[in-house]
TrEMBL record:
The gene is pheS. GO terms for biological process: phenylalanyl-tRNA aminoacylation. Pfam families: Phe_tRNA-synt_N (PF02912), tRNA-synt_2d (PF01409). The keyword Cytoplasm applies. This is Phenylalanine--tRNA ligase alpha subunit. Belongs to the class-II aminoacyl-tRNA synthetase family. Phe-tRNA synthetase alpha subunit type 1 subfamily. Keywords: Aminoacyl-tRNA synthetase, ATP-binding, Cytoplasm, Ligase, Magnesium, Metal-binding, Nucleotide-binding, Protein biosynthesis. It comes from the Bacteria. Its cofactor is Mg(2+). Binds 2 magnesium ions per tetramer. GO terms for molecular function: ATP binding; magnesium ion binding; phenylalanine-tRNA ligase activity; tRNA binding. It catalyses: tRNA(Phe) + L-phenylalanine + ATP = L-phenylalanyl-tRNA(Phe) + AMP + diphosphate + H(+).
Amino acid sequence: MNDLDQLVSAAQADFAAAATPAELENAKARYLGKAGQVTELLKGMGALSHEEKKTRGAEINQTKQRIESLLTERRQALAEAELQAQLKAESLDVSLPGRQHGMGGLHPVSRTMERIEAIFGSMGFEVADGPEIEEDWFNFTALNTPADHPARSMHDTFYVDTQAPDGSGHLLRTHTSPMQVRHAVQHVKRHAAALAAGQAMPEIRVIAPGRTYRVDSDATHSPMFHQCEGLWIGENVSFKDLKAVFADFFRNFFETDDLEIRFRPSFFPFTEPSAEVDIAFASGPLKGRWLEVAGSGQVHPNVVRNFGLDPERYIGFAFGMGPDRLTMLRYGVNDLRLFFDGDLRFLSQFR
Ligand code: PHE
C-alpha cells in the first residue's frame, strides 16, 4: 500500500469515526482544508521534476477525488441517520387509544327541575320565573304576612337593605311564593278587559321553580336551596284537585303507584286551610316512612285580593315543594350538602 492509498484509508477511517456533521467537517479539514494533508501534497509538487509532476500530480488528484467522494458518502449517511432519528423521535403510535373528551352532564337537581316541569307541563301548568332578590312586599306583605306578623320569624332571612315600614325593602327570597303574586298580577292584567266585562278569566295554572335562601345550614338544610311553587286559581278549584295533582305528580315523579299521600293540618299565613304534604312508599328502603315533601293550602282571600281578583269568585290552591329533597329521595342521597359542594366525583355519577 503506497502513501496515497494509506492516506485514503486514514481519511475513510476518520470520516467513519465522525458521528455528527460537525465532526465530519473537522475531519474533512484535516485532509482537504487549507493546511490539510492532500493540500500539503499538492503544495509540495513545485519541488518535483516535470515528469514526476505528471504522474505524481495525477495520482494526488485521484487521491483527492477518492477522499472527496468518501466525504460525500459519509455526509449522506450522516444526513440519512439524522433523518431516521428524527422520524423515530416524532413517530406517531397509531395504536395508542385516543384522548377522551369529558362529557358534561346535568346537575341532579337540574334533572329534577326538568322532570317537575315536564310532569306539571303535561297537566297544563305554565312555568314562570322571577327575581331572587325580592321586594319585601312580594315575599311577605302581599302574602298576608305584614311587617309585625310573627310568621316572618319562621324565615331566617338574608336582608339586602334596611326594611322600610312601607314594605319597599329588598331581601333574598325565602321561598318561591312571591311568584304566586307576581304571576297572578300579570295574568289578571292580561285578562283585564274580560274581567271588567264580567266574563270568565282563563284559570291560572303555573309552577315557579327556582333558588331560595334562608340562614340555615346542616345535612338537610343549605342557605341556598330550591323550591317549586305551584298555583291553580279558577272559579271552582278545590282541595280535591290539589290532592289529585299531587297524587299524579308524585306517582309520575317516582315512577310508582305504590305510594300514599297524606295531608297534615298546618299553618301558613297565605293559605287557609293549610296542610303539609307527606308521602310514603309501599316498598323500597324507605317503606312505610312518612316523608314531608311540600307545604300547601287553599289560597287565603287576602292573597287572592292582592292578585287583583274577587275572593268571592276566584278560589284555588297553592303549594311549595322542595326539589332538593325530591332529588335526595329519588337517588338515595342522604346529605344535601353533596349537591352544592361541586365535587365531580359525586356529580359525575349522575351523568
Ligand atoms: N312557601 C311555603 C314555605 O316555604 C310553602 C307553601 C307554598 C305553603 C304555598 C303553602 C302554599 O314553607
